Fold this protein.
Amino acid sequence: MKNNAYVFCVGVLAAGLFAVGRCSGGEVYAPATQARTVLKTSVDVAGQAISYPTNGIPEITGVLVEIPVGAQTGWHLHPSPCVAYVLQGEITVEVETGAKNSFRAGDSFAEVRNLRHCGFNTGAVPVRILLFVLGTKGAPVTVTAGAK
């Protein structure tokens, strides 16, 4: 039953919070409503399969992350699945393996889970990311992971 709650939450996020154009998944809205799927994936940006925590009460946390020009997030990890939507700027995310992915305003991605990574503002304006964490009540959203 807990996994069903997460599936429902992911559906709500995809259909409601990120709805900005016309969906291709057969969703039905009033004619004036525009909805566009901006992310649909079963793996995170490192290629890891997405799995939901089952060890507690489900809780969704929304976080607005802001990174100044030339700054970084510091090395960290997320113990729960996260969905990120870049509102402004450009960020390059490096994972502990050395792989790097870059994202700009309008991009969305599934954050890596339990894998050390660091986000670097590589643009000319502050980065603003809307991050939704599909975790459990009382669990941290982010855990500091020290330097690489």
User: Anything to note?
Assistant: The longest helix spans residues 2-17. The mean pLDDT is 85.
